[in-house]
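Blinded run. Sample ID left blank on purpose so nobody reads anything into the name before looking at the predicted structure. Input follows.
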Amino acid sequence: MPRPRMPRILIVPLVLLSFAIPAGAHAQDQRNEQFYYPGDFNWKVLQRYNAAGRLFNAFDYGHAILYETLYTRPEDLERELEQKQFTYLTT
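Blinded prediction complete.
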């Protein structure tokens, strides 16, 4: 059975759209996502509340490893997250 063909009326807008997407993406800000404006205020909270900095880092790491494991090894969730990573983060 032959595959149905896409109508020509849809092909032209898709081709034109493919040329517009890279130009729009290029116009976005090219700066690194982690950008800190210069100033002595940047690290005051972490200097004063050092334990909070460790907690923020644990949250970031925990979420990152959760998403990575969900995406790359969904069959291994319990052992990886509830045993290995939980022990790593809490001890």
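Unblinding after everyone has recorded impressions. The helical segments are 8-26, 44-48, 50-72, 77-90.
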